[in-house]
Amino acid sequence: HMSMLQSKRIVEAALRKESLDQIPSIASKLDEDEAAVDYVLDNLKVSRGGEGAARNARVLSVVFRHTDAQDCQRVTAAILDEYREFVAEKFRDVNEEAVGLIDRARLELESDIEKLSNDYREFRNDVPLLSATEGGANVYAMQYETLSNELSALTINIDESRGRLSLVKDQLKRLGDADAHQIEKLALIDEQNAARLGILVTVERGESQTAAFQALQPERIAGATSEYNSLLTLKSQLAHAMQEHGPKHPAVTKLQSQINEMDAFLRDRQGVLGVNDADAMLTPDDVMGAYVRLLENDLTALEMRRAELVKQIAWVEGKAKELVDYELEDEQRIREMARSEELYDSIVSRLKDINMQKDASGLIQEVIEEPEVGKKVAPKPVLAAAISVFVATLLSGLSLTLSELTDRKVHSAREFEGIYQAKVISHLPDLESDRDARLSLRKVAAGNPQVSPYVICLHDRKSRMSEAFRAIRTQLLLKLNLERKVVAVSSPNPGDGKSTVSANLAVSLAQSGKSVLLIDCDLRRPAVHTIFGLSNGVGLSNVLTEEVDFQDAFQGGVTENLSLLTAGPSPESPAELLCSERFRGLLEVLKHKFDVVLLDCPPMLAVTDPTIIASLVDSVLLVTTCLDVRGQPKARQCNRILESCGASVAGIIVNRTSKNDTSYDHDNYDGDYAEYLEYA
């Protein structure tokens, strides 16, 4: 903001708006080719902070020094008004642009939400989902679980039936046809199938088909079975008694008599049971055969049911998985709509906030003290008394004093050193007027090189100009002890030759074995790509807008150890890019990647860009000329800018000096030039 208040843009607009550039008190102070804005800038001072305890306060003090008290007040007030309007307008433009962008995003999001809702409605109509509630039951999953349980139970029944059948067959095979084991055979029939077997055997062996006979047949069969079992028991006891006592024993005779009576009784009962004489008598083997077939039929039926269940489970499983996919898609669509609605609510809320604030200023700008009528600061009463005492002496030197006051040209290197409080480290000849330099340039240009002939350190390393740049390189390394340093190269005015100096210094440093990066930070009028014959399609502006990675923007091939980063396409707001944290972070990274990073910056008095850069780098190398008749005021104004941003001036290079200009000879400043050349 200090730079803006002292910028030509603000001051010139303020003077033009109030027609202050035409007032007599200022017009009388102007040289023939001097503009009013230059005069005001020369006499305008902006400082930060107050006095005493308030020395670090965020307050700016604006002072204009002029010979007319009323005009001092008018000029200062006009500059303050123009500055405040400029800041408010810039903030308002940015705010209105933000409102437009957010409102457009809101409309686009409304359309997206409506489309998502319509798509979801169509999706729900097309898929077999009965409920969209979280945790809803899956009908097919429930059916799958029921069938799986039934299949498990059925598998157990099949295993039991197969085991029962195998057991019965094994036991029948073991017992064989012996009569003594008939009861053991019948004992193999389980209780669950006994009733079924009795009905089946009776129906198979009986002939009566009447309903009454069939109704009483179960009772008859049960009685006959009991009687037959008794007969079998008696026969078993008879066989045992004969083995133990012999055939003549009374117990054997008694058992034989009981068996005969039971046979006679059963023969009489055959008619009652409905069994013809021609039919064979029902034996335990017949019963067991029927029982085995019954078990086999049951096993076959169970296996058929299991096969059917397996098919049903496979179908239900497929349906259940398909339904799960639909449910997942349904949840995803719901979440997507929720996210869009949440974003929409956030945008609407932000839009309301901006609409409420769009007429408010982004900065608190308050004039603590209105511009006052100018106060007399010179001459002082004591000074006036001294002048009156020594008037004769002063009159004798008046002509010399007037000449000094009106001459604003810098005449010697020590004047530059006094203004900038820094050493002049080199003088470079005018390439157009210096004979040796002209011959070297013509020789290089004849070869039509890609790199500009003015990069003399690359084309003619033995020339006097190359030797001069090696001297600059050596002094810079000795003075700063450069080790991963970032140096900005700038000049007070356009045309001072700072780009040519930057290019030659970068090449000279690279030839010394240092890894060097030259960055073109003049985003308004870049020159590095023209000097080195490179493409400017991708450069610093693309890196700062994060379109490309900085490593992909480097160019090389000019000479070993030298990398170049051109300016790239000119952005709309170069100062904003250079103020960004992205640029600050880039310099930090490059500081550790290269031994020396040179920044070719715009002129200090033309734009505010170099002021921003100067506050971020380790030091500033200033390139200036003595050709401007207003060299002193511009040098002082440039120094004020450097001081305001806390920049450290590493040294001054005076460009375009001639052999006949003895005031700029190397002997006029401290340092042994021959010693530096020997060190280089």
List keywords for this structure.
alpha/beta, seven-stranded parallel sheet, two-stranded antiparallel sheet, 9 strands, 8% strand, elongated, disordered C terminus
Structure characterization notes:
With 680 residues, the chain is α/β, with parallel strands linked by helices. It has 27 helices and nine strands. The protein has helices spanning 2-5, 8-18, 24-27, 36-42, 69-126, 139-175, 182-187, 191-205, 211-245, 250-273, 284-357, 381-389, 391-396, 398-406, 413-420, 435-446, 456-459, 464-480, 498-511, 528-532, 540-544, 550-553, 574-579, 581-593, 609-614, 631-644, 673-679, and strands at 44-48, 60-64, 424-429, 485-490, 516-520, 562-565, 596-600, 619-625, 649-657. The strands form two sheets. A seven-stranded parallel β-sheet has the order 3-9-8-4-7-5-6, with helices on both faces. Strand 8, helix 26 and strand 9 form a beta-alpha-beta unit. The protein is elongated. The model is unreliable at 132-136, 207-213, 274-280 and 662-680 (pLDDT under 50).
Secondary structure layout:
Blueprint: H1 2-5, H2 8-18, H3 24-27, H4 36-42, E1 44-48, E2 60-64, H5 69-126, H6 139-175, H7 182-187, H8 191-205, H9 211-245, H10 250-273, H11 284-357, H12 381-389, H13 391-396, H14 398-406, H15 413-420, E3 424-429, H16 435-446, H17 456-459, H18 464-480, E4 485-490, H19 498-511, E5 516-520, H20 528-532, H21 540-544, H22 550-553, E6 562-565, H23 574-579, H24 581-593, E7 596-600, H25 609-614, E8 619-625, H26 631-644, E9 649-657, H27 673-679
Parallel strand pairs: 3-9, 4-7, 4-8, 5-6, 5-7, 8-9
Antiparallel strand pairs: 1-2
